[in-house]
Amino acid sequence: MYSRNIFAIMFSLSTLISSTLLQAQESSSVSIEGLDQPVEILKDRWGISHIYAQTEHDLFFAQGYSAARDRLFQFEIWRAQATGTTAEILGPRAIERDHGTRLFKFRGDMNDEMNHYHPRGVEIITAFVDGVNAYINVALEDPDNLSLPFKLLGIQPKHWTPEVVISRHQGLLGNIVAELKTGRAVCTIGEDKVRQLQYYHPHDPILELDPMIDCDSLVQNDILGLYNAYRTGIDFQPSDLAVAENRNTNESFQSLAATLENEERELQKRSIEDIGSNNWVVSGDLTQDGWPLMINDPHRAQAVPSLRYWVHL
After folding, report:
1. d(CA 130, CA 64)
2. Tens digit of pLDDT for each residue in 161-200?
3. 157 is a domain residue
4. Which of 142, 168, 185, 232 has the fewest CB atoms inside 10 Å of its own CB, making it the most exposed?
5. pTM attached to this predicted model
6. What angle do CA 49, 75, 264 make, to 5 degrees?
7. Considering only CA atoms, which of 271, 273, 279 is closest in space to residue 298?
8. pLDDT by residue (tens digit) across 78-118?
9. Which run of H or of E encompasses 43?
10. What does DSSP assign to residue 184?
11. Contact 72, 136 (CB under 8 A)
């Protein structure tokens, strides 16, 4: 074990014009334990960080520090999701979610897993996490300066581990519901009937069930219950607020809540089979101006804060 020195991170607000960083308009400096050398972070007019460091460790340490500094509440919610501890914030209604999260946790060799992302994945991810935790330490020195969501919920940020960085929050299993329905149908009416009732194109799939599958269990049990619980979004309720006086229970909140619930119900009515293709092309012969159209669906909704956090290293 060895200890790193205390060096400064210089934060500057600057203007980026023609790839030239002009003189900073505002600047501040903080001394952080864990750096090898001083680091400079320039913020351009769009709020994007440009991080300049002399070592790889310091570069990713500063990235973690800067990201946590900008998005600490989002980081805390991600940490709770990744570790299966959202019930500490949301109460008993999140227990099933945490149960599902813990079932899907990676249980292999963590160092090998991190090095799958990069040959020096262990060093890079560890440095990033150390930077995140360095800012959390700064924030915990004066909890009164935590952002409003922390105060409303009565919580404080907790430290990260490398497991949080590479945790699983989703599964690319878009057809899992259809697969389950098909399996249940085969159990109930047999392969031939399912093949007659369904349209399979361009291939004729093998519908024979694996001998290990128990049809009674497949049909009767909520197979996807924990999976669906662990991958749902985080929804806050007035009762989550720590201080009763802060709970918005007036007419405007009730109206907003009713609108959101109605929208969610409408979305749930739609089957994935009704959505159509994610990618399609229209010939110019069929368009008003004669130009062809090519459409694709990136599957990204607008969110605040945004999913991506741009940074220049």
Report:
1. 7
2. 999 999 887 776 778 888 999 999 999 999 999 998 988 8
3. yes
4. 142
5. 0.77
6. 115
7. 279
8. 999 999 999 999 999 999 999 999 998 888 999 999 999 99
9. strand 39-43
10. H
11. yes
What does the CA dihedral 147, 149, 153, 159 come to, rounded to 10 degrees?
Answer: -60
Is 38 among the domain residues? yes
Q: Is position 233 within any domain?
A: no
Sort strands 49-52 and 39-43 into parallel, antiparallel or unpaired.
Answer: antiparallel
Query: Does residue 242 belong to any structural domain of this protein?
Result: no
Between CA 94 and CA 127 the distance in angstroms is 31
CATH label of the domain that carries residue 106 = 1.10.439.10
- Read off the tokens for 70: 């900008």
Q: Containing domain of residue 26, as a range?
A: 5-170+302-312
Which strand (E) or helix (H) includes residue 11? strand 5-13
Cα-based torsion angle of the residue sequence 234, 236, 239, 242 in order, rounded to the nearest 10 degrees:
90
Between CA 8 and CA 265 the distance in angstroms is: 51
Number of domain units in the chain: 1
- pLDDT-derived band at 32 (thresholds 50, 70, 90) equals confident
Two tokens, residue 178: 């259809």
- For tokens 């999701």, name the residue: 81
